[in-house]
Amino acid sequence: MLEKVQKLKESFLSHLNQASSTAALDAIRIEFLGKKGEVSLLLNNLKSLPGDVRKEAGRIINDAKQYMEEQIRAKTAELSALEEKKKIDSAESYDESLPLPLSLGSYHPITLIQREVEEIFSSMGFIVEDYDEVVDDYHCFEALNIPKYHPARDMQDTYYLDNGQLLKTHTSAAQNYIMRKYGAPVRAIFPGRCFRNESPDACHENTFFQLEGIMIDRDISISNLIYFMKTMLSEVFRQDITVRLRPGFFPFVEPGFELDISCTICGGKGCPSCKNSGWLELCPCGMIHPNVLRFGGIDPEEYTGFAFGLGLTRLAMMKYGIKDIRILNSGNLKALSQFTDR
Ligand code: DAH
């Protein structure tokens, strides 16, 4: 038996010496120490030996087994260190002082224009407020002087929830909330996502953005409205903008207007973009209706104010030359990532 074990050890060592990778070592481990390996075979044969010889033989085999295990462990450590070093040495080298090709993503055009308009109004003393997208009928219509069954509701069909709430159709829905929150005097703008039951085409979307503003104080007049709109739009378009008002009907303002700006493409001479009129329709506005002030807890005998509902989506399209509104909600990064701050 001693001889057999000795031979096995020799054969093991010669295999071990030839092994040059951890994978080869693994194969040797299986061949000699595996369940059906050489050592197991010897141990199985012990059964046929007489008692006292068996004990001694068992000890010898187990010593040899232990010896082999240690050898494999040591050689595995040695070879895996070598293999790791080889990997490191052959890795592609790089200069860590070089700048990385960073891609930081980009802002959505609506975000860009919203931030810009917010900054301009903030500099003129307006606070920026956020408001819910799911609102109740009172805030979206009643408090804006649009009672149930008023025909003005037809243009603002929207998505209703089972509990009677609805997705707000315009940012005007926050007017009452702002009036109640701050009282008068107040200057506030409130941008937001709006929803309407609309069949989408190049100019219509069921989801779009507006930016509403109100200014309420003693002796506020249409002149104030014109001044603030002109200042803001001249900043956004980085050129002197001429505005004009046409009458427009909205139940929550009296008088109500459609505000047009001189065409930014042709400067007012007339071109295809402004249908040769020289003007672009941009922003409905007006003097806040006394009923709306009253609903907001403000005395219309003491205070007056103006309100406007800037189409943020429309403004972004004009500023960035976006021809199809559907691009804005498309998630098409190729189209949406081309716009930058300035
Ligand atoms: N909320 C109106 C709409 O979406 C727009 C609007 C008109 C807002 C006149 C105003 C305003 O503040 O004074 O159709």
Question: Could you walk me through the main structural features you see in this protein, from its secondary elements to its overall organization?
Answer:
- This protein has 342 residues and is of the alpha+beta class.
- 41% of the residues lie in helices and 18% in strands.
- The protein is built from 11 helices and 9 strands.
- Strands 1-4-5-9-8-7-6 form a 7-stranded mixed sheet. The chain has a two-stranded antiparallel ribbon with strand order 2-3.
- A hairpin with a 5-residue loop joins strand 6 and strand 7.
- Helix 1 runs parallel beside helix 4 and helix 2 runs antiparallel to helix 4.
- The chain is elongated.
- The protein binds 3,4-dihydroxyphenylalanine.
Helix content: 40-55%
Strands in their spatial order, largest beta sheet = 1-4-5-9-8-7-6
**Which kinds of small molecule does this entry bind, naming each only once?**
3,4-dihydroxyphenylalanine
Task: Return residue spans where pLDDT drops below 50 for at least 5 consecutive residues.
Answer: none
Helix tally equals 11
Taken from the alpha-carbon principal axes, the silhouette is elongated
Report on the biggest sheet.
Answer: 7 strands, mixed
